[in-house]
Amino acid sequence: ATKDEAKKHRYRQKISEYMTRAEDIKKHIEKEKQDGKYHKQIRIEENATGFGYEKLFQEYLTEIVSEVWVEDPYIRHVHQASRYSLYNFLRFCEMLVKGPCKVKTIHLLTSYDEGSGRSQQISGLEEIEQSLRNYGVTLNVAFSSSIHDREIRFNNGWMIKIGRGLDYFKKPQGRFSIGYCDFDLRPCHETTVDVFHTKHTKKM
């Protein structure tokens, strides 16, 4: 709005400098991604809300994502003490089915539930597998007794490591309490999320 030509010139110069700097930063980040050096860390505080799966993963689920790898040793029976891991994995799968990505294959590597929960764990995973098949998605499940790390990888090069895996939500206070259905409103356990970009996505 200024009519001062000298000020206009300075403002244009500054804007041009900022735009150039923004482009340089964008190129630098893109290069770091390509070099596999990109690293972003998100700290989820105790009792924090607003960290549903969509909020956490949507940024990385581009339209080219067609294959997903999940490594988590605790995708187990729903009645395991204070754990809702099978439901959490189901919710994660629902997010993938909704898009905008075109996921066709999900690979899950987990460990067997110990004791009497094993049959329910296998039954639950088979039910999820059948349900995903109705949406044209194949679920491949493998078990390992030595798995320890928790990570999620997409075939567009993104890798997300969550300290607690998919099970970072607190147990709801009741079946009719706010946050039972909407994970954005569910309080979280304290955990750290590390996001990397790699040129080559390791397959199981």
Automatic annotation (TrEMBL):
Alphabetized InterPro entries for the sequence: MIT_dom_sf, MIT_domain_contain_protein1, MITD1_C, MITD1_C_sf
UniProt GO BP: midbody abscission
Superkingdom, natural source: Eukaryota
GO cellular component terms, A-Z: midbody
MITD1 C-terminal phospholipase D-like domain ranges (all copies): 50-197
Entry coiled-coil feature ranges: none
Pfam families in the cross-refs: MIT_C
Database matches in CDD domains: MIT_C (cd02685)
Record-given protein name: MIT domain-containing protein 1
